[in-house]
Inverse folding.
């Protein structure tokens, strides 16, 4: 969609924002009553979540939603549940339960870093530092990147993915806390490598990129959850937007400011008429493929993050863009009440199988934990000065 067309869409107004926030915390309260201190599965089934162990890449998002609810309502029930989760996250880090992944930032920033920032809890700080150390182990000197998934000595896993940009704030935070630059240096090296290979000349993004384990040289872009290697997976593009904004915050490299605009504008220009992106931008208006509301929530948060550092005119544009995305989500995807779901945001997609990717069909047209979390974060960002967990 052309920028002029996009600008005709209404922005989320104050009244609707505060109603949405109130409804969101009602949903968090309802889910808390159902789940107690248990965790939720990655995505809902028929819009309701099942219980899960703390062994998935998404566990931090439900904890993060509880922290957001605590910050906005001051109700200690949210804080107490989130603090109980930090004990589970400590055990997970110490016993290395499913920690063979770059997702340590997704897990530990909205849970333990948030707990430390909001309560000063020393155990949460130590736990987040343990996670940062584990994430650092995944750095390959030869390739200068953090490996996404699996065993570090498996050449078939010698790759990075765009989602990892959201894991880097855990490393920047660890350097700031300890005074040890090693975390920051590796984060900076990773983002340099990642953005060099992942962003294509048209500013769409590859999902994953393989390197040669012998030489560390870049090899090829491949998708895992997108439609095909060369398509633009909507959520990957959104991880790029938010990840570049965070990289700018931590490095102040002007190259990231320029790149942010191109990558964000690609997202806006490929939105369909109702502003809820299809799960991959290869699909356009008229397609019967599902939408991925979570991509929009992530992109909106990234735009709001970057706007804090942009000159006024550009900041106004991206805040306005985020308000348009959030209005579309509030109107078309937000859960109306407990009878409908125990999540926040309907119409997400976790994975959709195609002949050209290697994922399975799951979590299609359902809530998912990051969609819920980033939708709530977007509302919070629009309603107050917020100190990010990232
Ligand atoms: N980071 C995994 C996903 O976005 O599905």
């Amino acid at each position: 969609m052309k920028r002029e067309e996009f600008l005709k869409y209404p922005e989320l107004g104050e009244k609707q924002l505060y109603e949405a926030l109130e409804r969101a915390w009602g949903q968090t309260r309802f889910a808390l009553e159902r789940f107690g201190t248990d965790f939720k599965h990655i995505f809902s089934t028929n819009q309701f979540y099942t219980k899960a162990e703390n062994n998935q890449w998404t566990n931090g998002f439900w904890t993060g939603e509880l922290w957001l609810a605590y910050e906005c309502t001051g109700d200690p029930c949210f804080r107490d549940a989130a603090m109980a989760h930090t004990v589970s996250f400590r055990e997970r880090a110490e016993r290395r339960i499913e920690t063979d992944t770059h997702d340590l930032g997704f897990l530990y920033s909205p849970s333990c870093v948030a707990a430390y920032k909001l309560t000063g809890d020393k155990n949460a700080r130590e736990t987040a530092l343990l996670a940062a150390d584990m994430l650092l182990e995944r750095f390959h000197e030869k390739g200068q990147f953090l490996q996404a998934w699996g065993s570090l000595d498996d050449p078939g896993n010698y790759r990075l993915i765009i989602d990892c940009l959201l894991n880097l704030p855990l490393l920047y935070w660890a350097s700031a806390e300890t005074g040890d630059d090693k975390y920051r240096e590796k984060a900076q090296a990773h983002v340099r490598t990642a953005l060099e290979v992942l962003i294509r000349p048209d500013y769409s993004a590859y999902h994953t990129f393989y390197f040669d384990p012998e030489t560390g040289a870049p090899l090829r872009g491949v998708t895992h959850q997108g439609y095909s290697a060369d398509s633009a997976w909507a959520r990957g593009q959104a991880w790029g937007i938010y990840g570049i904004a965070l990289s700018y915050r931590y490095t102040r490299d002007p190259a990231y400011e320029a790149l942010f605009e191109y990558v964000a504008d690609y997202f806006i220009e490929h939105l369909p008429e109702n502003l809820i992106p299809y799960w991959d931008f290869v699909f356009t208006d008229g397609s019967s493929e599902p939408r991925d509301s979570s991509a929009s929530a992530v992109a909106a948060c990234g735009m709001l993050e970057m706007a804090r550092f942009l000159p006024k005119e550009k900041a106004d544009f991206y805040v306005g863009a985020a308000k348009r995305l959030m209005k579309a989500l509030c109107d078309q995807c937000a859960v109306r009440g407990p009878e409908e779901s125990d999540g926040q945001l309907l119409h997400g997609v976790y994975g959709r199988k195609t002949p050209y990717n290697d994922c399975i069909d799951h979590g299609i047209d359902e809530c998912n934990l990051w969609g819920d979390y980033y939708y709530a974060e977007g509302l919070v960002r629009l309603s107050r000065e917020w100190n990010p967990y990232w």
Summary: Residues 163, 225, 235 surround glycine (CB under 6 Å). The chain has one domain: 3-383.
